[in-house]
Amino acid sequence: MTNVVTLKINDRDVSGRDDETILEIARQNAIFIPTLCHLDGLGDIGACRLCLVEIKGNNKLLPACVVVVQEGMEILTDSPRLAEYRQMIVQMLFAEGNHVCSVCVSNGHCELQDMAHTVQIDHIDLAYQYPKREVDASHNLFSLDRNRCILCTRCVRVCDEIEGVHTWDLMGRGIQSQVIIDMNQPWGTSDTCTSCGKCVQVCPTGALFEKGKAVAEMTKNPAFLPYLVSMRESKKSP
Predict the structure, then answer these.
(1) Exposure pattern of 198-207 as b/e (b: 16+ CB <10 Å)?
(2) C or N terminus of the chain, fewer CB within 10 Å?
């Protein structure tokens, strides 16, 4: 049984169910909180940390996508402290990958590019790491360019939660982390992949793309995203 709770977001009185997250309540009330890993219809894991918010009485910054609201909460979604953290996070995403936007298939259609604009980044202060990352073009329809992956795990979650096959997963720690197919094998050799393309459609960058797409040609199908929500709701139904 759920109950209605009242709380404040940016000194504004709002209400919601006690099983909803801060991010859900904020979006219901047209309060913007940035995020890259969240996608309606997929479970949240707080991977990107861009949705960090301040909660009165707690010195820690907490991810809005996984923190459930409580009665009397007072939440701040925009402050100099949060702006600094978000800029740092986006800079780290660029510095820890190999994001050459001018030759990317998703140039102009990339959520990371959009987020850089949102948090007002026009240059990177951090030292670029230039990691050596592989490109997997072994699948007959799609390609994986790990240089552009931001480890949001949308591909992992949509494959597991919606398609139900869990072809994708993560391997490694820290800057060595990477998405893998099955037991870290070439995508084209996977026995579990159904070639549904859901992972490609939910990828926020050019890490997953359809073969044959040139620079700036890879766009996502907007009609696909509401489908995720309806599929998740149908799985919840008895």
Answers:
(1) bbbbbbbbbb
(2) C
Per-residue pLDDT reduced to its tens digit, 170-199: 999 988 999 999 999 999 999 999 999 999
pLDDT of residue 230: 80
Whole-structure pTM over 0.85, yes or no? Answer: yes
Class of the CATH-defined domain 100-222: alpha beta
**Residues 6 or more apart from 152 whose CB is under 8 A from it?**
36, 37, 47, 48, 204
- d(CA 202, CA 51) in angstroms, rounded, equals 18
CATH 2.40.50.90, domain 4-78, yes or no: no
pLDDT-derived band at 222, boundaries 50, 70, 90 = low
